[in-house]
Amino acid sequence: MPVPLLDLRPQLAPLRAEILAAIAEVLDSTAYILGPRVASLESAMQAYCATPAAIGVSSGTDALLSALMALEVGPGDLVLTSPYSFFAATGSILRLGARPVFVDIDPQSYNLDPDGLQDFFTRRPAETARVKACLPVHLYGQSADMARILPLCAEHGIPVVEDAAQAIGARCPLGPAARRAAEAAMSTTAPGGDFAVAADWHRVGSMGLVGCFSFFPSKNLGGIGDGGMVVCRDQELAAKIRTLRMHGGTSRYHHDLLGGNFRLDPIQAAVLEIKLRHLPGWHLARRRNAERYRQLFTSSGLVAEGAVSLPVAVYQREAVAAGIADFHVYNQFVVRVRQRDELRTSLHQAGIGCEIYYPVPLHQQGCVAKLGYNQEVFPEAERAARETLALPIYPELTEEMQQEVVRAIRAFYRHS
Ligand SMILES: *Cc1c(COP(=O)(O)O)cnc(C)c1O
């Protein structure tokens, strides 16, 4: 039985009629640029993330780019980020003429390591003074350690921009120190903050000053094309991003800021608003699938033999004790494996979808390396790039399909 890495058809089938009707409504409205559908999705995202502002944009990449533009990141500035992620954040930093400064990842979560961040601030004070923003990524569906990242950045007055493209809805526990730091950072770096960080478990995107989402079809909330969203805890900054989205025009044909065309399409917004209602159920199904894999892999003996290391849901125990569901939203189920490249070939031959996210760490990408910025090594990012493999985890995956995946991996290690 072939098992695809991702199949969007079973998700579409039950929603197809509703989605077609929503598309027809946009078509007949002739409101083809922004308009009520985009505003409505913005309100829904604002409520879902519990943030005071949301701005629909053209992609996750443009969410990052416009957020950094609003913070006036430019030539000579440094932006701290992860060396192990999709290219969009690093690309946006470079496009603005700024320099990405990488901090290695934590090998358990694959997210930016707060110890590395602390070490950077301690050992490189001159560079710290030039840091314009810190851009952690919530990779694979789980939040970075914001309880530590927020206070560390706040100490240095550095605003935090979250790349939440892979983790919409995921929650992170913030202790009182992080909450205070988040509030303090907001008032010192961006006056006009009006959002008191309240309860303990926060959704990604809502903890830093700005959060960036992608609606690329393979994300947990995916459109039928490109789309993105910026959420923001500061109304002034949000207004600036809205302006940047329309070529920096505060009124028509008057351009005070240099922006771009970063608008979200209303057809995408209409589809996404329908899908957003199903997101909690899809998250639940992804977590159920993750638990099934854990049982299947454990009983296969592959974990005990050290052939396969399962992903670590770092907040799971604490969340379950607190009755919190979305501690991980499993955009990807990523295992570390022995003989990764051979296993991947063997699975593909068996008709089983799997992919390497990401084979080349960002500091080693051609267009980054040739700038000569980052001569350091980032051992954990490099090891992750060599050892990890993403397996199918989409909500509609059946138990039989998961058994097939584990059987194929079991067979590979028996023969190798
Ligand atoms: C998908 C993704 C993006 C970019 O989103 P697009 O909508 O494709 O531009 C940015 N960051 C991460 C971590 C992503 O996974």
Essential attributes:
2 domains; Aspartate Aminotransferase, domain 1; globular; 13% strand; 416 residues; alpha/beta; Aspartate Aminotransferase, domain 2; binds pyridoxal-5'-phosphate; 3-stranded parallel β-sheet; 4-stranded mixed β-sheet
In short:
Helices cover 43% and strands 13% of the residues. It is an alpha/beta fold.
Per DSSP E runs of 2 or more residues, the count of β-strands stands at: 14
Separate helix tally: 17
Relevant CATH superfamily of the largest domain: Type I PLP-dependent aspartate aminotransferase-like (Major domain)
Question: Average pLDDT across residues?
Answer: 94
Shape field: globular
Rounded Rg: 21 Å
- What is the CATH topology classification name of the largest domain? Aspartate Aminotransferase, domain 2
- Helix-strand makeup class: alpha/beta
Helix content bin? 40-55%
Distance between the termini: 22 Å
Low confidence ranges: 187-198
Description:
By secondary structure, the chain is of the alpha/beta class. The chain folds into two domains: 9-276, Type I PLP-dependent aspartate aminotransferase-like (Major domain) (Aspartate Aminotransferase, domain 2), CATH 3.40.640; 279-415, Aspartate Aminotransferase, domain 1 (Alpha-Beta Complex). Helix content is 43%, strand content 13%. It has 17 helices and 14 strands. The strands form five sheets. It has a four-stranded mixed β-sheet with strand order 1-9-8-5, with helices on both faces. α4 crosses α5 (88-95), α4 (60-70) packs across α10 (235-245) and α8 crosses α9 (176-189). The two termini are 22 Å apart. Pyridoxal-5'-phosphate binds at residues 59-61, 85-86, 88-89, 137, 163, 165-166, 214, 216, 226, 228.
